[in-house]
Design brief:
Layout: H1 3-56, E1 74-79, H2 87-103, E2 108-112, H3 114-122, E3 127-131, H4 134-137, H5 139-155, E4 161-169, E5 175-183, H6 212-289
Parallel strand pairs: 1-2, 1-4, 2-3
Antiparallel strand pairs: 4-5
Helix pairs in contact: 1-6, 2-3, 5-6
Length: 290
């Protein structure tokens, strides 16, 4: 092979090797997504069962601030990823959070993720707390810390509403910001305060050894921490999907480059062959003349 053909062959081998590595990484990310999705499915079953407790209390009257709250204060949580390849999705989440921020200009903003915090500041949002190093600290620990902050403010009368904005993996290919009202948890009580529930069945009667407000505080406490953990874990799910999508795009680009190199390699081979044939023909002609 000529020098040009050798170089093209080397480039083609390099691209093939890189393509193989990227394909493996993409398969790993895809498997991570479905593994995380299975864990979320199991966790969702727990939340569904947990809602039974709220349904049992749908007819009670309670003054627990975590369930009934008319205070004007608002807490806004922005849950973002700390991975560099998630910058585009982080921007979408922060932009959605900024629109909520404009609705409640005096709200307290909590941000999970250093990159998201930087983007929020660029948009002009004032941050009350920032939670960094999520992987090192632990998702559950972060969820508990946010829960304690929210409940302390709401029980103390400083806040009357808590809203969360996070990256939601609706499916493997659909990733978008989602806005969720966390507190007060009044919607979880269904037809609270009515003899008949909104679903048309008679409210359950039960004997309580604790105060209703105390029971509601415990249930709302568990609910908030569970939902926060679920949303922070959703970020991990979205990361796996986003990484797989980006690697798929890289595979398409590298595959196109590989096809181009294969065509160039074949063309160069034909050129080398034609050159060799011309040299042989020229050599034969010279020999006959002698």
């Amino acid at each position: 092979m000529g020098g040009k053909t050798t170089r093209i062959k080397g480039d083609m081998d390099d691209v093939a090797a890189i393509l193989e590595i990227i394909t493996i990484l993409k398969d790993v990310s895809t498997n991570r997504f479905f593994a995380f999705a299975k864990k979320k499915e199991n966790f969702s079953k727990f939340l569904e069962i947990f809602l039974v407790f709220f349904n049992m209390l749908e007819s009670v009257r309670t003054n627990c601030p975590l369930v009934r709250n008319q205070n004007d204060g608002t807490d806004l949580m922005v849950l973002t990823s700390e991975s560099s390849f998630m910058s585009q999705l982080n921007n979408k989440v922060c932009n959605a959070a900024f629109r909520e921020y404009e609705k409640y200009p005096d709200c307290q903003v909590l941000c999970v993720g250093r990159r998201g915090a930087d983007k929020c500041r660029q948009l002009g949002m004032k941050l009350a707390k920032v939670y960094e190093d999520v992987e090192a600290t632990g998702r559950y620990e972060i969820a508990l810390s946010i829960r304690d902050y929210l409940i302390e403010r709401m029980m103390g009368g400083a806040s009357g509403k808590a809203i969360a904005v996070y990256i939601w993996a609706k499916s493997f290919n659909v990733l978008k910001p989602r806005i969720v009202k966390m507190l007060p948890a009044e919607e979880l009580l269904g037809g609270a305060g009515d003899e008949d529930s909104q679903f048309g069945h008679m409210a359950r009667r039960f004997i309580s050894e604790s105060t209703i407000d105390g029971i509601m505080k415990v249930l709302a406490d568990i609910w908030v921490s569970s939902r926060l953990f679920e949303m922070i874990s959703d970020t991990q799910l979205a990361e796996a999907a986003a990484q797989a999508q980006q690697l798929e795009s890289a595979i398409e680009g590298m595959s196109s480059e590989k096809k181009g190199l294969v065509m160039a390699f074949k063309k160069s081979q034909r050129g080398d062959l034609n050159k060799a044939m011309r040299e042989v023909f020229t050599s034969s002609s010279v020999t006959r003349k002698r």
